[in-house]
Specification:
Number of strands: 16
Distance between the termini: 56 Å
Largest sheet: 5 strands, antiparallel
Structural class: alpha+beta
Strand content: 15-25%
Number of helices: 28
Shape: elongated
Oligomer: single chain
């Protein structure tokens, strides 16, 4: 059993590596830096009207697409790269989705192409063609449109949903919307919407020291550690920035002094704003583009959809900070924000953009930001009411309210039923297990149909690896909350493992495990029972370690490359079973899937016993569960339960291995059955011969003594 499955796994991996597409695609570094961007990517794939393309221009950068008409070149549209126009937007993976977008001269989107992404949707079962089909919906829409999944309100564009990739496509919506807006604004196709300007308190306020400014929120801090960008450990942070808004008199005078503040305010034109930034660390907030072209490509200010970049003309020297207690710093500067679309009355973000070295040895873009909102005391009338955008995960939970309620009801039922399993086992007998079997079958059917095929709520070892790395790299609640059914499932799994071990999930609720169990029972009912078998104990106890070997390989691979680990996780047949049509997959996947399902008809849960890395991961903490199944003293010599244990989890000494037990409860039925449990049957016969009445079976698995009943 083991070697054929490993052979199929190898074939699966070969097919996986052969898969082409944008997932973890290798892009040339020059694509992000060369002024002639279109030398490195087919810009006409998103702007087919153009026959020639110019160099990068603007801030943020874009490329002008042209076509010759009447002997003259005419601009027909614009092409932009997401790392230029919206580098701070990341997907479900926490990494950018490098996207090329085209827009015609009328401000309509002409094409969108994802060049590279690290989204695990392909490994969760969504083919890349679905993602490509999704981005086709942008074509023809006005630049800067607000794209919403499903039903849209007035002024929004409704987008078809890709089930299981909600966070990914929501991020892509933001990326295309903001990127097209940024380019359209620069070329004059969209006019920025003016915000109500802040009315600043002009009362004379004595200068504040640095600690007071920080405490009241007038000065904010943004720190990026070396580990955040994949750099070697260092005593200094990668970047440590302090920043604040200078137009407010109390802040400006504290930081610049009276004379410096007056000079700055005299220089600023109406509607212009000044912020200061001071920095320490092994990096610089100025960046290399400043040296080449006077562009500060490391920092930007954003307020809702509007993003503000800085050039050398927006920079002023900051020679000294007058506030007492100010930290020493390696660099400093004042930056000017221009345009009525920025208002100090509303919150805004300072973002630091950096290259990050990944575990795979590649480099991607990382964005770090801190929110700034002028203290209410410096605004006449205080801060205005701001309708904060509902987080993506909240919208997802609301959209899935009914499936969440249905799944929660199922989990509550299983939890309560298993917590009271002794009552139902005592009512059952070896020849009449309906009190145990019928609920089991009902839960299996719901797990397969509702959780598996309908809601795609199949937990995977990939999620376990993500959890493992989150403990090291930083916890992201939005990542784990973005799939509510899986989130709830893992909470349930954690609780039940602590209480009873892995078997409540693996034996009752795992969609694939439930399908495997149903196939085995169905095969027995249609006449295949005579060919159903268990491996001899010697081979079973050897092969069960195979799933732990697979788990160890996946964990080790994940620390080398998460992408490699996700590909190796194809050993789980969950994707082929629930997420995609099996007939759309390469033949090794089909063969591996078919062998496992066929084996499930003749051997009880072969994948769960010998190959499942998720089961192996859950088995490890199961050894320390709080409550185990009951045993009698005679179980050390009696083999009755072991003979009927489909999981082969009972050893020759009668001990139940919690890492292998699927909590089928058959042994608990025998535990209370006075006709099938040999020591209990012996006691029953003794009482019957002596004319003694039978009493209920007690907690120790024997009849309650008569004197206690009396």
């Amino acid at each position: 059993m083991g070697w054929p499955c490993l052979a199929f796994l190898l074939l699966c991996l070969v097919a996986g590596w052969a898969r082409a597409g944008s997932y973890e695609a290798q892009l040339p570094e020059a694509l992000f830096t060369d002024p002639d961007m279109c030398r490195h990517v087919a810009c006409d794939s998103v702007l087919p009207q153009a026959t020639r393309f110019g160099l990068r221009e603007g801030n943020p950068a874009f490329v002008r697409g042209m076509r010759e008409e009447g002997g003259k070149l005419r601009t027909v549209g614009y092409v932009s790269l997401s790392s230029d126009v919206a580098p701070d937007i990341v997907g479900y993976s926490g990494k950018p989705m490098i996207t090329l977008a085209g827009m015609d001269a009328d401000g309509k989107i002409t094409g969108v192409r994802i060049l590279k992404h690290s989204e695990p949707i392909l490994l969760a079962g969504i083919p890349e063609k679905e993602l490509n089909r999704y981005v086709e919906q942008y074509v023809g829409q006005p630049a800067g449109s607000r794209f919403e999944l499903g039903k849209a309100e007035e002024g929004e564009v409704s987008m078809d949903v890709i089930s299981g990739a909600t966070v990914t496509v929501m991020a892509e919506n933001q990326l295309v919307s903001r990127g097209s807006y940024a380019v359209a604004r620069q070329v004059g196709l969209i006019k920025a919407v003016a915000r109500p300007q802040a009315r600043l308190v002009e009362d004379a306020v004595p200068p504040r020291d640095w600690n007071a400014l920080v405490k009241e929120g007038s000065v904010q801090r943004l720190t990026v550690g070396q580990a955040d960008v994949g750099a070697p450990a260092n005593e200094q942070p990668f970047i440590d920035l302090w920043f604040g808004y200078l137009n407010a008199p109390a802040i400006g005078r504290s930081v610049l002094g009276d004379a410096g503040y007056r000079q700055l305010m005299e220089e600023l034109k109406p509607g212009e704003h000044a912020i200061f930034v001071v920095g320490n660390g092994t990096s610089s907030f100025k960046g290399s583009a400043f040296v080449r072209g006077g562009i500060y490509d490391r920092i930007q200010v954003s307020q809702d959809i509007d993003v503000h970049h800085f050039r050398d003309t927006d920079y002023r020297n900051l020679y000294r900070i007058h506030a007492n207690g100010a930290p020493s710093h390696a660099e400093s500067g004042i930056f000017i924000l221009r345009g009525s679309e920025f208002s100090a009355a509303y919150p805004w973000k300072l973002s630091f953009l950096a290259h990050r070295n990944t575990d795979e040895g590649n480099r991607d873009y990382a964005n770090f930001d801190a929110v700034y909102w002028l203290p209410a005391a410096y605004l006449q009338g205080g801060r205005p009411a701001v309708a904060r955008q509902t987080p993506a995960w909240v919208r997802i939970w609301k959209a899935k309210a009914r499936p969440i309620a249905g799944m929660s009801a199922l989990l509550v039922f299983v939890f309560v039923f298993y917590a009271t399993h002794r009552r139902w086992a005592a009512r059952s007998t070896r020849v009449d297990k309906r009190w145990i079997l019928w609920p089991h079958i009902a839960v299996w059917l719901i797990a397969v149909g509702f959780l598996g095929f309908s809601q795609l709520a199949q937990p995977s070892i990939v999620q376990g690896l993500t959890l493992l790395h989150a403990l090291r790299d930083g916890w992201r609640w939005d990542l784990f909350l973005s799939d509510p059914l899986i989130f709830i499932f893992w909470i349930f799994i954690a609780i039940t493992i602590v209480l009873w071990g892995r078997g409540v999930f693996c034996g009752w609720l795992c969609p694939y495990g439930s399908l495997s169990e149903l196939l085995y029972k169905f095969a027995g009912k249609i006449g295949l029972a005579r060919w159903q078998f268990q491996l001899p104990g010697k081979w079973h106890h050897r092969l069960r370690w195979l799933k732990y070997v697979i788990l160890a390989v996946l964990v080790a691979a994940s620390f080398h490359s998460m992408a490699l680990a996700e590909l190796l996780a194809e050993v789980e047949p969950f994707k082929s079973t629930f997420f995609v049509s099996i007939w759309t997959r390469a033949w090794p996947f089909i063969a591996f899937w078919a062998v496992l399902l066929a084996a499930s008809m003749f051997m009880e849960r072969p994948f769960c016993k010998y190959l499942c890395p998720l089961g192996a991961g859950l088995a490890l903490p199961s050894r320390w569960r709080l409550f185990g199944l009951r045993r009698k003293a005679e179980c050390t010599t009696c083999k009755a339960c072991a003979v009927g244990c489909g999981s082969q989890a009972i050893d020759p000494q009668g001990r139940i291995d919690p890492s292998e037990c699927m909590q089928c409860l058959d042994c608990m039925v025998l535990y209370h059955d006075d006709h099938s449990c040999p020591p209990l049957a012996k006691e029953r016969k003794r009482r019957e011969r002596a004319g003694m009445p039978l009493t209920p079976v007690g907690r120790d698995g024997h009849f309650i003594p008569l004197e206690l009943v009396e």
